[in-house]
Structure prediction request, 73 residues.
Amino acid sequence: MLVLLSGVVGRPGGYVAGSVVQVAVLAGGVAVTAMFAIGGLFVVLWVVALRLGGRIDRERAAWDAAHPGQVSA
Prediction:
């Protein structure tokens, strides 16, 4: 489910849906202890992706502002 949700992050509600599923995976650790480790790994990946994605968007916007009319690679 988390891998599938990574494709809808750009749509409205994508970040919220991903975060809700993260909580659900961690809650699964109550039933299956290994889910705490798996859920923790996915939470770390989720937070890193959100932070890096925002940074990349800011850097791209700054580049676009500094180079009007050019296409960024």
